[in-house]
């Protein structure tokens, strides 16, 4: 289970104070919950989130201009494992994603009125990212728990750990 799930289940120490503040922001001031709601943290709808793109998204497929530049809201579950972000992989980190929403994105005619710039302090942005990271299972613990050594599995684990180390060095 994720740290977030353990916290919701009553394990108060499962997430940090910063993550708790971030969860409050997600549901309040940052208004992420408008699209990232429910247990899966998605409304499964299509929204124009103001990205710089020439891809018309759902609007082209549905032949509906009100859906131009609209893409399906992804779940926030396991979000830390799915970088880069946005439909076009234009943002490398969750911090960059939050900064995008702080600016309000590109003002397309199809951008919903709810998507306005979000005024967050550096600490609030950090707390929001920390909170989102609690929706991801700790892969190291998962591998230790279910790892049964075979040469093939060992090679896969070494490859995953090398990729994670490389990713961490890039940040």
Question: What would you say this structure looks like, in words?
Answer:
This protein is mostly helical. The chain is about 40% helix and about 5% strand. The protein is built from seven helices and two strands, in the order H-H-E-H-E-H-H-H-H. It has helices at about 5-10, 15-25, 60, 95-105, 120-135, 140-145, 150-170, and strands at about 45-50, 70. Strands 1-2 form a two-stranded antiparallel sheet. Helix 4 crosses helix 5 (about 120-135). The two termini are about 25 Å apart. Mean pLDDT is about 80; it is low at about 165-170.
Estimated helix fraction: 40-55%
Overall radius of gyration: 18 Å
β-sheet strand percentage: under 5%
Strand order of the largest sheet: 1-2
The main β sheet shows up as: 2 strands, antiparallel
Give unreliable regions as ranges. Answer: 165-171
- What is the quaternary state of this protein? single chain
**Count of helical stretches:** 7
Q: Name the average pLDDT.
A: 82
Order of helices and strands: HHEHEHHHH
Shape: globular
- Tell me how many strands there are: 2
Spatial separation of the terminal alpha carbons: 26 Å
Structural class: mainly alpha
Task: Compose a concise summary of this entry.
This protein is mainly alpha-helical. Helix content is 42%, strand content 4%. The chain has helices at 3-8, 17-27, 58-62, 94-103, 122-133, 139-146, 151-170, and strands spanning 46-48, 70-72.
Blueprint of the fold:
Layout: H1 3-8, H2 17-27, E1 46-48, H3 58-62, E2 70-72, H4 94-103, H5 122-133, H6 139-146, H7 151-170
Antiparallel strand pairs: 1-2
């Amino acid at each position: 289970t994720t740290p977030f799930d353990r916290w919701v289940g009553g394990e108060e120490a499962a997430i940090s104070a910063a993550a708790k503040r971030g969860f409050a922001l997600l549901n309040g001031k940052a208004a992420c919950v408008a699209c990232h709601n429910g247990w899966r943290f998605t409304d499964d709808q299509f929204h124009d989130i103001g990205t710089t793109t020439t891809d018309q998204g759902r609007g082209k497929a549905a032949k509906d201009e009100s859906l131009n530049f609209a893409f399906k809201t992804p779940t926030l579950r396991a979000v830390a494992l799915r970088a880069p972000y946005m439909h076009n992989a234009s943002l490398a980190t969750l911090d960059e994603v939050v900064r995008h929403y702080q600016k309000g994105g590109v003002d397309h005619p199809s951008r919903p009125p709810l998507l306005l710039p979000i005024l967050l302090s550096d600490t609030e942005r950090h707390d929001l990212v920390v909170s989102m990271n609690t929706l991801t299972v700790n892969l190291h613990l998962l591998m230790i728990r279910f790892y049964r050594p075979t040469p093939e599995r060992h090679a896969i684990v070494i490859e995953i750990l090398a990729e994670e180390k490389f990713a961490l060095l890039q940040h």
